Amino acid sequence: QVQLVESGGGLVQAGGSLRLSCEVSGRTFTSFHMGWFRQAPGKEREFVGRINKSGDTTYYADSVKGRFTISRDNAKNTVYLQMSSLTPEDTAVYYCAADLIPNGAYDYWGQGTQVTVSS
Which residues are CB-contacts of 53 (< 8 A; sequence separation ≥ 6)? Predict the structure, then answer.
């Protein structure tokens, strides 16, 4: 059974930084391309970025490009989302997701972690 567990969310002031982690268990971590998504209250879920299996290719939404960085440690079965220059518009529940085939249809999802950015 594949499980994804996010951690690292919390309250941060505007302009601050936060790092989210997502640990994957139940299947070989390097089987998965990994993605991060977020959902703000009253809004649809939004793609944030993704990283390939080996960790050498990343892709970001325009809204976070230059501020957020995705990385992975395959030895620790963990993917990270480093967020900086945060604004209140970044407030959302952040989810990690695992994709066996990079077709955008993610196969497994975490439970989410709340990030709140105060002005």
Answer: 30, 31, 32, 33
At 30 the three-state DSSP class reads helix
- Going by C-alpha positions, the residue among 80, 10, 15, 8 that lies closest to residue 48 is 80
Tokens for 117? 């950015």
- Six-digit token string for 78: 């963990």
Judge contact between 82 and 68, C-beta under 8 A: yes
β-sheet bridge partners, residue 21 = 7, 80
10-26 tens-digit pLDDT: 999 999 999 999 999 99
Asked if residues 105 and 84 have their Cβ atoms less than 8 Å apart, the reply is: no
Separation of CA 31 from chain center: 17
Interatomic CA distance for residues 105 and 103, integer angstroms: 6
Each residue's pLDDT tens digit, 71-81: 999 999 999 99
Q: d(Cα 43, Cα 103) in Å, to the nearest integer?
A: 23
Write down the residue that tokens 């809204």 correspond to.
63
Rounded-to-integer distance, Cα 99 and Cα 92, Å: 22
